[in-house]
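Notebook entry, structure prediction.
Reason for the run: the old model in the group folder had no record of what sequence produced it. Starting over properly, with the input documented here first.
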Amino acid sequence: MTRSAGGPSAAEFVPAGGRSLRALAEALPDCRGCELWSNGTRPVFGDGPARAEIVLVGEQPGDQEERQGRPFVGPAGRLLDEALAEAGIDRKRVYVTNAVKHFRFAPRGKRRMHVKPTVEHVRSCVPWLEAELARIRPRVAVAMGATAAQAMLGRTFRVSRQRGALVRDTHWADVVTATVHPAAIVRLRGKDGFAAAFAAFVADLSSAARA
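New structure, fully documented this time:
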């Protein structure tokens, strides 16, 4: 899934050439690469320095991210901030984004519940992620969760088996690695497995920084 092939695609909506991240962000709301544009939410572009050495890629924006227009500002984002601080990584020097730019959800009363994006949604949105990383040219890209990992490293990649592996032969960055999504750790907060899961996540981020 590392490159869009067949089916709907955002490719025709992505500005060509060496356009800046700002130009990409300004073009994103006009994207009609898949049907998620019509769900009433606004797309959320990445956030961070244009020459970040580390890029963190998640699945899709959540409820709070969509409302605020920035990635990783909800509960998962707060846990990510904690983990980055624990790993000695300055969040202000990291670029964060998502494989899918719209929030896919199912209404439940007044709440909007997260729904995993489909393979087609991810494939359609890959051109935006490719354009972001082509502008940034990071040394390390960290895919957080199965959706991001398979978008960047192929559908056969399994975080459960290949977590922490350093993949060098890609067009994304000098090194690509994968870990769990911080949302998975948020769900463990207050439970027995939280401390170990958080420590392992911090270790993955530390390893990526060393790479």
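Summary: The chain has a mean pLDDT of 94.
The old model has been moved to the deprecated folder.
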